[in-house]
Design goal:
Number of strands: 8
Radius of gyration: 14 Å
Shape: globular
Number of domains: 1
Distance between the termini: 12 Å
């Protein structure tokens, strides 16, 4: 896997223990938006581009069981769809967040660092 930056938006969620947690999310822009998955151990993000999944393959659901998080080495078979489910960095509990269906203001745009399982690291 290689880390890359993708465009997204900033948001804020609250974990079950009432900690405020910054989250980021993607929305479709001229096609399908990449899906984000979060490692439940270290919170690193993995970005799955639907086009890469379709044309490069295999499907993420088929390859994730055999993939490891580049950040901590944990198996990504149990990585959760993010930010629908997110790990609170303060207490470790899992919260939920529903991304808005409409685009946020431009000042909320951000770059999201995420690992791409369809790109091999450069040597």
């Amino acid at each position: 896997m290689q880390q890359r930056q993708i465009g997204g938006w900033r948001g804020e969620a609250t974990c079950p223990e009432d900690h405020r947690v910054p989250v980021t999310f993607t929305l479709p822009d001229y096609g399908d938006a990449p899906s984000l998955f979060q490692c439940p151990e270290c919170s690193e993000l993995v970005s799955v581009d639907p086009s890469a999944e379709q044309y490069i393959g295999p499907a993420w659901d088929q390859m994730r069981d055999g993939s490891s998080c580049p950040g901590c080495g944990d198996a990504l078979g149990h990585a959760r769809l993010y930010p629908d489910h997110f790990r609170c960095p303060e207490c470790g509990s899992v919260g939920t967040f529903e991304p808005p269906a409409t685009y946020s203001p431009d000042e909320m745009r951000t770059l999201i660092a995420a690992w791409d399982p369809y790109v091999e690291p450069e040597e």
